[in-house]
Amino acid sequence: MPAEGYRLEITPSSVTLDVADAAGEFYGRQTLRQLAGPSWFRSVPGGPSTVPCGVVVDHPRFAWRGCLLDVARHFRTKAEVLRFIDLLAAHKLNVLHLHLTDDQGWRIEIPEFPRLTSVGGWRTGSMVGRHDGPERDGRPHGGFYTLDDLREIVAYAGLRAVTVVPEIDIPGHARAAIAAYPELGPDPSAQWEVWTSWGISTSLLNTSESTVDFFKAVFDQLLEIFPSEMIGIGGDEVPGATAEHGLFVRKIIAHLESRGRRALCWDEVLEIPDLPKVTISSWRNSEAGAIAAAAGHDVVMCPEQHVYLDHRQSDHPDEPIPVGFVRTLEDVYAYDPALPGILGTQAQVWSEHLDTARRVDYAAFPRLSAFAEVAWSPVEGRDFAEFLPRLRDHHLPRLDALGVEYRPLDGPHPWQTRPGVPGRPI
After folding, report:
1. Residue 9, domain CATH
2. Does 137 lie in the same domain as 30?
3. Total number of domains constituting the chain
4. Using N-to-C axis directions, what is the helix angle for 78-90 and 357-364, rounded to 10°?
5. Final residue of a domain: which of 18, 42, 59?
6. Catalytic residue among 80, 152, 237, 257
7. What are phi and psi of 55, to 5 degrees?
8. Tens-digit pLDDT profile for residues 105-138
9. Which of 47, 114, 216, 230 could disulfide-pair with 264, CB 3.0 to 4.6 Å?
10. End-to-end CA distance of the chain
11. Is 237 a catalytic residue?
């Protein structure tokens, strides 16, 4: 049967599971857990259950069924990441794209460069909401993962058929690294700080050979921890980038290839001349994915207009920190990557405005549940009117059992609102 597939047969006297591989076994067991009822999603499952007899033959539509979790803007503890992996696995999603570095924080220990975490791992405060003023909350924020933490995260995910794809963002979104080592930046004599704002910083890495060597060493450390074939290198939102920055990116791509890995890049890298074959995350629009595929690149579809789960879920004034497009549960369920030959699709959970695990729950669920069905099941016959009662009557009780503080279908609970915190709706 196809990769990750399984055949589950339930008779009055037995349950038989035939599988294509270890992932197929895991997913077959997840289906059996679904049939057994919500109590089987608790840490201590309920008593004996009655499950319906029948045969389930199943396999995923896409090989890459991912979700990005941004731990750079707001750090999530190791325990919170492990919990998020459990939630992905329960939805048969198989890639955790871990965004480890950005202007607002550096989250991975690199023993050769300790200031990346001692300096770059924390900031003096954060913008609350989204505005153009100088106001900050004045609350220090930080944290990072040790190498042993990350080894544990990778192993934990692997047992749940989830691949962790790390990302170190270059040559933009690098203010935290520049604050730690000013010689990496455009002006080594300047006093840099980890950024306390949201948006796009104009502070890019310089393109000297010493900076290239610095990041080769960083990525070498990364490769010792993460066995993923794909390694994220960013490449997005680089105002003022020069041809030398494009060459810098190509050198890192070549370095990863020399180590037997492949670069995962945001779609802006398509503007770099002589770009070698990479995997493109098509985020700006769906057209970027089509252009990448036509040029021979592998493609993961994750367009902002459809699958950015930090964007607001309605235009009601109670929606907390209303940023981005309105993307309802029905909108996410209606999305179809619809590009032949792509690796798959991915939802994004950016965390500028998600400062707690509770806020991540609210933004991600139940929209990520709808996205999981988009990524797994054929598009033929998909009907929101059929999906909604399944979600409401069967799946939301599973999320309740898992302790997920999802957004209710009719709007936020009072304690999920953020009155008076400005957003930036589109």
Report:
1. 3.30.379.10
2. no
3. 2
4. 20
5. 59
6. 237
7. -130, 130
8. 999 999 999 999 999 999 999 999 999 899 999 9
9. 230
10. 44
11. yes
Residue found under tokens 């691949």: 163
Is 106 inside a domain boundary? yes
- Rounded CA-CA distance 29/19 in Å is 10
- Flag whether 253 is in a domain: yes
Residue 258 and residue 143 share a domain = yes
Distance CA 14, CA 138 (A): 60
- Residue 423 CA to residue 405 CA, distance in Å, equals 22
Q: In sequence order, what DSSP letters do the residues of 291-340 get, joined into one string?
A: HHHHTT-EEEE--HHHHBTTS-S-S-TTSSS--B----HHHHHH-----T
Residue 201: what pLDDT?
94
Q: Which residue has the tokens 């059929």?
A: 386
Q: How many helices (H) and strands (E) does the chain have?
A: 14, 15
Question: What gap in Å lies between CA 207 and CA 324, rounded to an integer?
Answer: 33
Residues 182 and 71 in one domain: yes
Q: Which helix (H) or strand (E) element contains residue 287? A: helix 286-294
Residues 194 and 104 sit within 8 Å (Cβ to Cβ): yes
Q: Does residue 163 share a domain with residue 48?
A: no
In a domain, 423, yes or no: no
pLDDT band for position 181 (cuts 50, 70, 90): very high
Q: Please say if the pLDDT value at position 46 is more than 90.
A: no
Q: Which two tokens stand for residue 195?
A: 């950024």
Domain span at 117:
60-416
Residue 403 within any structural domain of the chain: yes
